[in-house]
Structures
1.
Amino acid sequence: MRAPSEHPMNQAATDLATDPWARLLAAPETALADHPGSPKLRDSDGFWLLRLDRPDEHNRLDPADVDALGAFFAARAADPTPPRALVIIGTGERTFSSGYTLGAIGTELDHRLEDMLDALERLPCLTIAALSGSVYGGATDMALACDLRIGRDGLRMFMPAARFGLHYYPGGLRRYLDRLGLGATAKLMLTGMTIESAEMLRIGFLTESVPAGDFDTRLGEILDAVALTDPATVARMKANLLELLAGGSRAETAAVLAEMARAHVESRDSEELQRRLAARLAR
């Protein structure tokens, strides 16, 4: 799968008419900020595509990129009509991203990276890491902050923090443990070992692993499915799932469960549900 900037824009008109991923790839692109290598943004039909754009440097994240992404996620969270889904991809087929710039770890790595990834995790829409290339370091946490991680066959990942003598930040360790469990987290975090696609899928780092030739098709199928959902319901269920996963005291857990029960009743009695059921039954 080519990165969007390299992707052929000669898809048949029928593809552009029926495939939301093809339309997203064909949409105009703008930079999130004015610094060189800034992430790029496309939007179409309520879907957003963020492209990490430092292919000669494995799409690493500079401090300026972290700031631009943090501001973007904050704006999306405050938007009364957030996107239906946000897809993040790297330029090229070699690397999704190598994570935070090594030369800045000792001088500029602070709470901003963790805050940015926490904000990505909490976005009120479906988020997808489209892994057309391998993923390393802090970019593994960016992928884990997304709801789905769709990878092509032949990927690799590793987390080198322990090799550098860096104790990982709390949000990243939490995400690893929540998504992958203690055994896989210990292997990746405490040894720095490299794993490949089959193991990435087995431990849950990848939601799906597909042949490279089917990568675009699968992303189109996922966006097609998302287009049929109710964005407000998706946003509320996602927030409730994250709150329940976070745990807390017995009283806090009871409050989350009560909110989920309220959300169920309100959606069951809503005009939106009646409209969607009527449309379905009229087929």
2.
Amino acid sequence: MFGLLKIDAEFQRSAIIWLNLSAARKVLLRLLSIFVYDRRMPVVNVQIVQPRKLAAVRREVMLGAVGSAWGPALNKVWEYIRSQPGLRTDGHNIFLYHHPKQPGMPILCDFGVEVTRTFETAGEVYATETPAGETAVAVHRGPYNRMNEAYVAIEKWMAANRRESAGHSWEIYGDPTPDPSDTETTIVHLLK
């Protein structure tokens, strides 16, 4: 009987250690899933990018007014593109921002659509392109009202890596999805 109690006590200690290790593993895996696999956490990476041709309408807006300016401008671009067969195949909406030199000043925004070739200016719609060069890139997954998280991640990355902005950034809008949490927008920031 005493031998059985001894085995049971040893088994209990082993089981408790195993359970504690198992619980620790679960906590560790949960933390890893939060820090590594959290879809909302934008990861910043460096990419060398080539220019993308755009049909765009330019607007000068204050930083907080971009949300009300893009719709009418982009409607003009789409109206023009629809009248030009072959100008667009599967390009995305791209908003190109030319950052002001002075904080608080208006920003120049090219609200555009990726196109296959350059073309002659028609009214307000003109041909332009995104800059080429070394960039910091983050993919935002989720609704547009949370896109600032990707910008903050890029700003923190630039500060931590002692990199500076070259004064241009752009947003490449992925295809719309029924669930806003699945929407992807790529944020690209040109580096000096």
3.
Amino acid sequence: MPVRKPVQQELQMKIFSDNSKAGSTNNNPPNAISSIIGQDMAIVGDITFQSKIQLDGKLQGNISGTFLVLSESGKIVGDVVAETLVCYGKVDGNVKADKLFLKKSGVINGCVETSDLSVESGGILNGEIKSQTQSRDRKVADVAKTKPEPVSTMGNPALSEPQKA
């Protein structure tokens, strides 16, 4: 059985933690993963989070939040909305993320909308990619300002100027 490497060293991890209780303190480092959905877990339903989580198991539903790490064993059948997605696993659904890191073992089957995309060699992306920074309001006037170059007849008499009789 292979030894599983921790995603991040010296993490204090909690499953579905709730730090809103009176007297509780958050001792997690700012970049720490606050929740892990284990490899043996399968969730049916939507998940919303405001922290950094790692999904090792399966999710059938939509997920939205701040920072999501989808491990090699992780699978999502549904849409993902996140500020940052690091994908080592498989997503069957649409992804909307400010930053998307598709790793060599990662697979995304669906439309992707992102402003920052990184795909490692071997990563698989099946679907449409849209940039969030593309100008969607390009005006016809801007296009009209550019004058087309004249087309050469290249010796083709059918394309030459009509002759006067």
